[in-house]
Amino acid sequence: MKIDGTCHCGEIAWEAEIDPDKLLICHCTDCQILSGGPFRWGTLIPKEAFTLLRGSPKAYRKIAASGSPRLLSFCGTCGTPLYGTQAENATTYSLRLSSARQAGTLRPKMQMWSASAIDWLDAVCAMPKIEQPNPDLKTD
Which domains does the chain show, CATH number per domain? Predict the structure, then answer.
């Protein structure tokens, strides 16, 4: 399946070929911290399946739980996460799906690092929902 996306500010644009049956949620604590949320959502693709259409991502080097160095690519202007990859001789990208134009139709099929999952996630669907923020909350 071909998908495409942009970072929040539009400086970076990309497209990729993905297998929609291989979408996953990662609950590791690094993904929680780096995504700014309770998990990260993505898929593993061959490097050749990703095309950068516009912009030049910045990269952050981290050490994975395996001890291997990883590069995490993101927009240097707005910070939107794009993908993670091996620091040396990259062959695959762990594509972050939050910036995909088709994000609303991409459904994860599995979860990993579930022992690190935030314990209130199961209750999210039952929480009250509102369309717009409460005007009494200052979110600007």
Answer: 2-126 (2.170.150.70)
As beta bridge partners, residue 44 has 94
- DSSP structural state of residue 91: -
Which residue's structure tokens are 């693709």?
Answer: 45
Q: Rounded to the nearest 5°, which phi and psi values hold at 37?
A: -140, -175
pLDDT for position 109: 93
Q: How many Å apart are CA 1 and CA 64, to the nearest integer?
A: 29
For the stretch 52-108, pLDDT in tens is 999 999 999 999 888 889 999 999 999 999 999 988 899 999 999 999 999 999 999
Tell me phi and psi for residue 57, to 5 degrees: -65, 155
- At residue 92, the 3 state secondary structure works out as strand
Helix residue spans in the chain (DSSP H): 29-35
Are 41 and 98 in contact, with CB atoms under 8 Å apart? yes
Q: What is the pTM of this model?
A: 0.82
Structure tokens at 56: 């030049």
Spatial strand order in the sheet of 2-6: 2-6, 13-17, 50-54
pLDDT for 73 equals 96
Spatial strand order in the sheet of 40-46: 58-63, 69-74, 81-86, 92-96, 40-46, 23-26, 110-112
